[in-house]
Design goal:
The protein is an all-alpha fold. It is built from 4 helices and no strands. It has one domain.
Length: 71
């Protein structure tokens, strides 16, 4: 998987996630990068745990958007 980036035909990129990340960096600088890495890269022990951070509703919305783009 490539979430929060897109996987063509399966799910669209999560642009809201990217905007939140950029806003955190603007507000807190390099500390925000470290926090992000800890939460999303180093923290989750499994891929399923990683996806759980985003929630099923958010993932479902991204999958719906991908289907709309590939009709």
């Amino acid at each position: 998987g490539s979430f929060p980036h897109e996987c063509y035909g399966l799910y669209e990129a999560d642009y809201d996630h990217f905007a939140e990340y950029c806003a955190a960096i603007d507000a807190r600088g390099p500390v925000a990068v470290g926090d992000y890495l800890e939460r999303y890269v180093y923290g989750p022990p499994t891929w399923s745990d990683y996806l759980d951070l985003f929630g099923g509703e958010r993932m479902g919305l991204q999958a719906k958007r991908a289907r709309e783009l590939t009709r």
